[in-house]
Amino acid sequence: MEVLNPTQLHLLKMFAFAKDSKSLEEIRAALMEVFAKRVEKDMDCLWDSGKWDNDKNDAVLCEHLRTPYI
After folding, report:
1. CA-based R_g, the chain, Å
2. What is the CA 34 to chain-centroid distance, rounded?
């Protein structure tokens, strides 16, 4: 049996207050903003450290990641 971590438990308690779809959408938007900012900050760190550059961007954009169907 899996146990919920403290973040998951807190979110479940928070969702108890979301009584309609508008509340759910507001919570969803707030969480997306937090994680988008985190990704942007992490990408800035990679860029500043030289671990990421335009060549890497181009390589990722051209990469074929689809699952091959046989």
Report:
1. 19
2. 8
Backbone angles phi, psi at 48, to 5 degrees: -65, -30
Provide the 8-state DSSP code for 16: T
Please tell me the pTM assigned to this model.
0.66
11-22: pLDDT as tens digits: 888 888 888 999
Are 43 and 36 in contact by the 8 Å Cβ rule? The answer is no
CA distance 6 to 12: 10
Distances (CA, A) of 31 to 11, 38, 49, 53, 64: 10, 11, 27, 28, 29
Exposure letters 9-38 (e unless 16+ CB within 10 A, then b): eeeeeeeeeeeeeeeeeeeeeeeeeeeeee
